[in-house]
Amino acid sequence: MIYIGIDPGSSSGAISCLSEDYQPYMPPYEMGKGTIKDMYLYLKDISSMDQTQCVLERVNVHPNTAVNAASTFMKNVGHIEMALVSLDIPYVEPTPMRWMKHFGMKKDESESKTEWKRRLRELAEKRLGIKTKATTADAYLLALYGIETLNK
Question: CA within 20 to 30 Å of 145's CA: 5, 35, 56, 97, which one?
């Protein structure tokens, strides 16, 4: 079984995949570095090699987000959902609060976004024994959440 983690940010999101033994299955895909077709083909490659399950972070747009940014972001989420459905990849959609609680993580009110992302990256690196970037850490943690919560 391959577990896919998707952080759906349109420019800062990523897709990662882990095997059942917690090893990266393929290098992560960074959303801002390719096209919709590239993202689809990445998921297609994963789904053609093994059984898959996906954890797609359920996200909402905040009220003070610019309309163009919100539109682009939600359009990206729709593309991801359509790719998963068309490739017959089952998926769950935990909220950020739910999957972060699983790891005992909570953002402190005084903590900057950079500090928070650094802590998430450090957690992913520690749990998986790999080097990762802040842009791909959430996706790795989502895949890890899948390993630890799905089919149990």
Answer: 35
Q: Domains in the chain: how many in total? A: 1
Q: What is the DSSP annotation of 61-127?
A: --TTS-HHHHHHHHHHHHHHHHHHHHTT--EE---HHHHHHHTT----TT--HHHHHHHHHHHHHHH
CA–CA gap between residue 70 and residue 122 (Å, rounded): 29
pLDDT 10s digits, 24-46 = 999 999 988 888 999 999 999 99
Return the CATH number at 103.
3.30.420.10
What's the CA angle centered on 26, arms 123 and 53, to 5 degrees?
Answer: 80
Domain of 35, in residue numbers: 2-149
- Interacting residues of 34 by C-beta distance below 8 A, sequence separation 6+: 42
Q: pLDDT digit string (tens) for 135-152?
A: 899 999 999 999 999 976
CA distances from 55 to 63, 86, 101, 114 (A): 25, 16, 15, 24
